């Protein structure tokens, strides 16, 4: 029986998967099954961390505003400051 050469579709799919994980270390960038698992894990992490990044930057923003308020000698906290801004219609 003659040898049958397989098509290129599966190879193309694996190559696409490898492009995503090309910067991963070790088997995570070489073995097909591990690549698939790590790709899923990376996508989950990136989705979760986009929201976490927004949360972290908001906390940093509040901390910085608090520091500036206290530097000016106004002994306020962030929530009272923002409340006063809304009252005086400087913030919308």
TrEMBL record:
Transmembrane segments: none annotated. InterPro entries: Ribosomal_bL20, RIBOSOMAL_L20_CS, Ribosomal_protein_bL20_C. The keyword rRNA-binding applies. One of its GO terms (molecular function) is rRNA binding. Keywords: Ribonucleoprotein, Ribosomal protein, RNA-binding, rRNA-binding. Gene3D superfamilies: 6.10.160.10, Ribosomal protein L20. GO terms for biological process: translation. GO terms for cellular component: ribonucleoprotein complex; ribosome. Belongs to the bacterial ribosomal protein bL20 family. PANTHER family: 39S RIBOSOMAL PROTEIN L20. Binds directly to 23S ribosomal RNA and is necessary for the in vitro assembly process of the 50S ribosomal subunit. It is not involved in the protein synthesizing functions of that subunit. This is 50S ribosomal protein L20. It comes from Saponaria officinalis. The lineage of its organism: Eukaryota, Viridiplantae, Streptophyta, Embryophyta, Tracheophyta.
């Amino acid at each position: 029986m003659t040898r049958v050469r397989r098509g290129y579709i599966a190879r193309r799919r694996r190559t696409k998967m490898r492009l995503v994980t090309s910067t991963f270390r070790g088997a995570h960038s070489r073995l097909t099954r591990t690549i698939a698992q790590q790709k899923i894990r990376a996508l989950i992490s990136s989705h979760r961390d986009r929201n976490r990044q927004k949360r972290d930057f908001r906390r940093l923003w509040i901390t910085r505003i608090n520091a500036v308020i206290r530097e000016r000698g106004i002994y306020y906290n962030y929530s009272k400051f923002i409340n006063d801004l809304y009252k005086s219609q400087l913030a919308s």
